[in-house]
Every structure is written in structure tokens, then in C-alpha cells.
Write a structure and sequence with these properties.
163 residues, Alpha-Beta Plaits, 6 helices, 55% helix
């Protein structure tokens, strides 16, 4: 008896909760359509935005403004990117795989030629004026060789047998 009552109550609850009026269904469908339109608009707006600063070579060439290039060593790449970012230059970095140590080619828009020359000028000035940092490994090797030359005390201990 109790099981039947529980079953009837649960069936009536499910029936009441599953009823949806036609107006509610139309509201949901309209909301879904509006959401789809908003998402499509956002995607389209994102595609229309031109990338600025560091980008891929494909994006750079796709802007149809011509491209020039400069070669840079890997150790100097980060500094070069900082200076180029300050001037708002669009550029792309490509690694030349066949060389050891690796050399990177940086491509620029041809219309940014004046800014590129200024970036290269500032970059070379910074590298020329930068003091050479002493190698820590070299310094350790020198200290090791000096330590090896210092005579060490030798303690001789002889075991004496007593009978």
C-alpha cells in the first residue's frame, strides 16, 4: 500500500514538472537563437582583428604589405623582442634548423622599415655597451686549479704493535 502511494506521488511530481507551456518553449528557442547570433558576431569580430606585435609568418604575409628579414642569435632574441614591442613593430620569428648554434630569422613588414632600423640601432647599441659578464664556470675552474696547487698537510699515523 505504501509503495503504491509513493509511486503515484512520484509519477504526479514528474508529470507536473515536465509540463512546459508553449510560451516557455518559444522563449527558450528565442534565447537559443539570440545566443547563437551573439557567438557568431564575436567570432567574426575576432577574425577581423589584425594581430599586432609577435605573430606567425603566415599572419604577417597575409597582410599583403611586404616582408623584410634580419638574423639574430638565440641569446639575443628576448631583448630584440622587447625593443621591437616598444616600437609597435609587427614581426614573426622563425628558427633556422640546420645551423648550430641556432640562428633565428625575424621577419618584419616592409612598411615598418624606419621603425625596424631604429630597433636594430637601439639593439646594437645596447649589446655594444653591455659589459661582458664573467663566466662563473671559468671562475670555478680557476679556483679549483689554485686549490689543487696548495700543499696539504699530510698526517702520517703509524700503528705500533705492542706485545
Amino acid at each position: 500500500m505504501v509503495g503504491e502511494e509513493v509511486t503515484k506521488e512520484s509519477i504526479s511530481y514528474v508529470y507536473r514538472s515536465s509540463r512546459v507551456s508553449l510560451e516557455d518553449a518559444i522563449k527558450v528557442m528565442r534565447w537559443i537563437d539570440e545566443t547563437k547570433k551573439e557567438l557568431k558576431a564575436k567570432v567574426k569580430a575576432k577574425k577581423d582583428v589584425k594581430p599586432v606585435g609577435k605573430q606567425t609568418v603566415k599572419q604577417l604575409i597575409g597582410q599583403d604589405q611586404g616582408v623584410t628579414s634580419v638574423d639574430v642569435a638565440k641569446t639575443d632574441l628576448r631583448e630584440f623582442q622587447k625593443i621591437a614591442g616598444r616600437f609597435g613593430v609587427d614581426f614573426a620569428v622563425v628558427k633556422n634548423k640546420g645551423q648550430e648554434p641556432p640562428i633565428y630569422t625575424i621577419f618584419f613588414k616592409a612598411r615598418d622599415q624606419d621603425a625596424i632600423s631604429k630597433v636594430v640601432q637601439l639593439y646594437t647599441e645596447k649589446k655594444m655597451l653591455e659589459p661582458k659578464k664573467p663566466s662563473i664556470i671559468q671562475h670555478l675552474k680557476e679556483l679549483k686549479s689554485k686549490a689543487a696547487e696548495i700543499p696539504h698537510k699530510v698526517a702520517h699515523r703509524e700503528k705500533v704493535r705492542t706485545r
